[in-house]
From TrEMBL:
It catalyses: L-tyrosyl-[protein] + ATP = O-phospho-L-tyrosyl-[protein] + ADP + H(+). It comes from Cyclopterus lumpus. PANTHER family: TYROSINE-PROTEIN KINASE (PTHR24418). This is Tyrosine-protein kinase. SUPFAM superfamilies: Protein kinase-like (PK-like), SH2 domain, SH3-domain. It is an enzyme of class 2 (transferase). Keywords: ATP-binding, Kinase, Lipoprotein, Myristate, Nucleotide-binding, Phosphoprotein, SH2 domain, SH3 domain, Transferase, Tyrosine-protein kinase. The keyword Protein transport does not apply. Residues 64-125 form the SH3 domain. Belongs to the protein kinase superfamily. Tyr protein kinase family. Gene3D superfamilies: Phosphorylase Kinase, domain 1, SH2 domain, SH3 Domains, Transferase(Phosphotransferase) domain 1.
Length: 516
């Protein structure tokens, strides 16, 4: 399956349902999803039988029939059904209709198995180019290019955020005024299919444009020198059909933390894959309700959300997620390298969290427990939101009564704490509190006040003063998040935009101080 007789196609002959073609010549490949009935006579030879089929030949010819894919990264098999492969290996896709794991045959080894679909791209396509980073925002491009070790001229190309069908070229630069910075150039498309940054230099293909600017700056800030290094992405799930997994497939190795409702461990799944495992105390929540919510949670996919990999759905419930090497943001700020960070890094981390929350906002979901303890940190100060949606399921009486030590009163909007009205706007209030955690390096909010006192004072209009060293403009955003009327609080989309442009639009004259 997956081939047709190219001689018949080129002749544009409709083959009757009973007729057979026995031409011997090079096979042409078609996408697996096309509605055709095809049978290979001999996979290793170039002879095969075309069974009768009724499809639009013109569509097949125009589509190019892409079946060959190339690996973008190395991958080590995690199960006996997986294929191990190296970057650059080529595959024929056998079945790509069952989600994030495709059945493929390695052209290099002839072996057949499952591969993660986000680790491959069509051969000879722009997606297979090392310098093409696909759907990536301006700010994420800057974060990557400005990482230590990258030199002037390091670059990447990506989809344009603002112009459909166009691309952006992002280049690391340096000058005496700005120091290290990133310049962005719009790559526009011609009606005839060509590409250009400036009309005096036009190219028939994006590859040729990139090649040209690696040889000459030709008006750009600097010649393209090195492709921006990239981090291997997380797979979507642990493996094919590895969602509800047996408890004995997990090994708990290093205890990372403990809370009111369970523990967090670093561990290994199936003897092959490092993961984080959250274990919940029996009785914390209904297994049935958890499994229902987990089905929603696993579909919330964004690069600023910790991906949910798998679950053990019988008590004690286990939640298996991506392992984030730097642990919780709270611990990172108090005891890790985070205590040495200055305001630009802290604001950037806040912008990443706002980015993830803006996605949750667009998906009409609610976090319900947004605070530094529920943000995880990876290498290069990458932040991801964890535990979204879980708070709703907790059945502990003290917690559901929204009082006592187990409930995070100090992070919770008054309408949610007093009346149980949790919305994306109450998440906005919590984000304002999280901002204070960032600029105070993990200090508990409302220092010196107990929960009951906080509730009473906030109801009377009290708001935390500007933390020491924090710019008044950032405190103003906190106060905006703490408006009494939820509808007056900013959207996360607005907060993200404000924070991403903070040092160009709001605080262009910022100078680092002793603490921030």
């Amino acid at each position: 399956m997956g081939t047709f007789c190219s001689k018949c196609i080129s002749a544009k002959n409709n083959v009757s349902s009973q007729s057979e073609c026995t031409h011997t010549h090079t096979r042409t490949h078609i996408p697996q999803t096309l509605p055709c009935s095809l049978k290979e006579d001999n996979l290793e030879s170039h002879s095969f039988i075309c069974l009768g089929f009724d499809i639009h030949f013109q569509f097949l010819v125009l589509s190019g029939g892409v079946t060959f894919f190339v690996a973008l990264y190395d991958y080590e098999a995690r199960t006996t059904d997986d294929l191990s492969f190296k970057k650059g290996d080529r595959f024929q896709i056998i079945n790509n209709t069952e989600g994030d794991w495709w059945e493929a045959r390695s052209i290099n080894t002839g072996q057949k198995g499952y591969i993660p679909s986000n680790y491959v791209a069509p051969a000879d396509s722009i997606q297979a180019e090392e310098w093409y980073f696909g759907k990536m925002g301006r700010k994420d491009a800057e974060r990557l290019l400005l990482l230590p070790g990258n030199q002037r001229g390091t670059f990447l190309a990506r989809e344009s955020e603002t112009t459909k069908g166009a691309y952006s070229l992002s280049i690391r630069d340096w000058d005496e005024v700005k120091g290290d910075n990133v310049k962005h150039y719009k790559i526009r498309k011609l009606d005839n299919g060509g590409y250009y940054i400036t009309t005096r230099a036009q190219f028939e293909a994006l590859k040729k444009l990139v090649k040209h600017y690696t040889e000459h700056a030709d008006g750009l800030c600097y010649r393209l020198t090195t492709v921006c290094p990239t981090v291997k992405p997380q797979t979507q799930g642990l493996a094919k059909d590895a969602w509800e997994i047996p408890r004995d497939s997990l090994r708990l190795e290093i205890k990372l933390g403990q809370g009111c409702f369970g523990e967090v461990w670093m561990g290994t799944w199936n003897g092959t894959t490092k993961v984080a495992i959250k274990t919940l105390k029996p009785g914390t929540m209904s297994p049935e309700a958890f499994l229902q919510e987990a089905q929603i949670m696993k579909k919330l996919r964004h690069d600023k959300l910790v991906p949910l990999y798998a679950v053990v759905s019988e008590e004690p419930i286990y939640i298996v997620t991506e392992f984030m090497g730097k642990g919780s943001l709270l611990d990172f700020l108090k005891e890790g390298d985070g205590k040495y960070l200055k305001l630009p890094q802290l604001v950037d981390m806040a912008a990443q969290i706002a980015d993830g929350m803006a996605f949750i906002e667009r998906m009409n979901y609610i976090h319900r427990d947004l605070r530094a303890a529920n943000i995880l940190v990876a290498d290069n100060l990458v932040c991801k939101i964890a535990d979204f949606g879980l708070a709703r399921l907790i059945e502990d009486n003290e917690y559901t009564a929204r009082q006592g030590a187990k409930f995070p009163i100090k992070w919770t909007a008054p309408e949610a704490a007093l009346y149980g009205r949790f919305t994306i706007k109450s998440d906005g209030w919590s984000f304002g509190i999280l901002l204070t955690e960032l600029v105070t390096k993990g200090r508990v909010p409302y220092p010196g006040m107990v929960n009951r006192e906080v509730l009473e004072q906030v109801e009377r209009g009290y708001r935390m003063p500007c933390p020491q060293g924090c710019p008044e403009s950032l405190h103003e955003m906190m106060r905006h998040c703490w408006k009494k009327d939820p509808d007056e609080r900013p959207t996360f989309e607005y907060i993200q935009s404000f924070l991403e442009d903070y040092f160009t639009a709001t605080e262009p004259l910022y100078q680092p101080g002793d603490n921030l």
